[in-house]
Design a protein that fits this description.
The protein is an alpha+beta fold. It contains three helices and seven strands. Helix content is about 30%, strand content about 35%. It has a seven-stranded antiparallel β-sheet, covered by helices on one side. The C terminus is likely disordered.
Length: about 150
């Protein structure tokens, strides 16, 4: 299992809004080149396909749980492996929020595969989370919380 956690001065609700707004994903998760989805807002039962800029193939995403104001759980399948993810946001003890991304691989030799990919996956998680936190903080500083994308001059 790969887990990364960071704190943000942004409120959990602002971070959550960025997580569930599909159109904001390219801002805080720039490896996402395209998303074809049942809805532009993630909800329970949401399904879609995402394609990373470095991948010729799209990956199907299935959302199993959305926690009101607290992120969501989802999974995808790649060959014989299942990848389970939890993109969580909680209120931090001293205001702001704690963002936690978890990824777990199951399937043949999953523990070996996970050890091989863990360093790169953890780096990607940290980069996405820092961008997510920065974007949420910028939106709040600008008083633009209802907006999921920062202005072009951000």
């Amino acid at each position: 299992m790969i887990t990364t956690e960071i704190d943000s001065s942004a409120s959990p609700s602002t971070v959550h809004e960025l997580l569930v707004d599909v159109d904001s994903w390219s801002v805080w998760s720039p490896h996402v080149a395209s998303v074809d989805a049942t809805s532009r807002r993630v909800g329970p039962g949401w399904m879609g396909t995402t394609r990373a800029f470095f991948s010729p193939a799209a990956t199907a995403m299935f959302v199993s749980e959305v926690r009101p104001g607290g992120g969501y759980r989802w999974h995808s399948v790649a060959g014989p492996w299942r990848l389970d993810y939890d993109n969580a946001v909680d209120a931090a003890a001293d205001d702001g929020s704690t963002i936690r991304f978890t990824a777990e691989l199951t399937g043949p030799a999953a523990s070996v595969v996970e050890r091989v990919v863990a360093p790169l996956s953890a780096l990607g998680q940290r980069r996405r989370m820092h961008r997510l936190a920065r974007t949420a903080e910028l939106l709040e500083r600008q008083g633009d919380v209802g907006r999921s994308r920062p202005p072009d001059d951000a």
